[in-house]
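Continuing the series of single-chain predictions for the mutant panel. This is the parent chain; the variants come on the following pages.
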Amino acid sequence: MSPISSIEVARARRSRRVLFVGNPTRYNDVSQWAMVRQWVALHGLEPIRELEGDVLCVIVTEDILDGRCSPKESAAVQHARALGVPCISVHDTTLIWQVTARVRSRIRESVVVPAGVHSDGA
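Parent structure:
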């Protein structure tokens, strides 16, 4: 495998895609998983389930962190880590917030209405 270039890392950090790996089984995981997926979508990011192309970060269940996962899930997390993509527990909302901050701010800037543009038709 060739070394990861800084261009690939920079491109991944601009991505709006957030990979979710795992199938939550614990009650707290299920509700947190749903809440984080909804938050991601509401902030203009794209929640995905397959590692294809650039991803901003990977959100994982506690089972994944504990090593209780399928070989496919384990391979996805290992591949993401090899690419330098942060793998974050679904419960670590502070880190999720920090990792996505730059992309979320760019999304907000792109939808800001320029000064002098009025929606009242005047």
